[in-house]
# Entry
Amino acid sequence: MQDIILPLRGGKPFTPHQQIRLLRILIASVAVFAFFFSLFFGQVDYILMFFAITGAIWTGGAGVVIVGGLYWKRGTTLAAFVALIVGSGIATSGVIFQKIWAGTLYPLLEHRGWLAGFTRILETASGPFEPYILWRVTPVKFPINSIEIVLGSMLTSIFLYLTLSLLSRKESFNMERMLHRGKYQREGKVIDHGIKGWRDILRKLIGINEEYSRGDKIITWSVFIWSFVLHFIIFFFGILIWNLIKPWPAEWWAHWFFFQTFVLGGFVALVSTVWFTWGGTRDLFRLFRDLDREEVDDLDDGRVVDHISAEDLERNKQLDPIEFNDDKGKR
# Structure
């Protein structure tokens, strides 16, 4: 609604009542689609690969758009739409091709006499990457697996976003103004994002600042140690180096996957269930309490008008016109 429907309306805002009603309709529509998709669509791939490719229907194109839109001042709307549509289209096409390959696509290629050429193209493309990538055409399964389709959708969307943004934007976007940083900082507490010494580097890299409570810091450090130190450095690089020096026998891998999947996974599931049930219930009550006290600004609806947020436009009507248009020049 925010990023597609509103721009198609020419930026004309919804009333708060219209916005809430439309949000409810869209949420219900997504739920109905998910129900019938799950009911009638049978997967033809391994479950983790199926999760990856169905997730890529959104993330395949949205990842670069979100990161680029938040952190890159050269990103453009055109590049975002193209990257999102193409990335999503590749992932969606992959799901469909896998589903209809054995019954429709392979017989069609064979009937039209295109099978030999199609096979030659795929095998030539995968040749430099063998044995890690093997695209072999068989009548049973689509030759490109789900993970390879996901990677293709992401790389394509990244390339399109970067290329089209550089070609279509003549001047840099004022990210400082949009995000209220620097001289556009609003009243209230100013968060120090600078690095004062070596001790601050790691803390800043994982996002900890003055707004974090002691509990927030404990959670953040725990997640960082769990994901980066334990899983990436120890579980991945540690095992990789060990096997390069002295390869594990086959039965060790079975023991390792049992420990990682069931023992460690079961422990995390137990802790998370208790933690999230108690903490989520507590925070839900806090959320309703805070929302009841919140002063709602109907202009703060995410709209951007002439490269400036609608809320800022209304706030700045009282300011000097030169300051109001300092990044665009006088009207």
In short: The first helix runs from residue 5 to 8. The first strand starts at residue 304 and ends at 305. Strands lie at 304-305, 308-309.
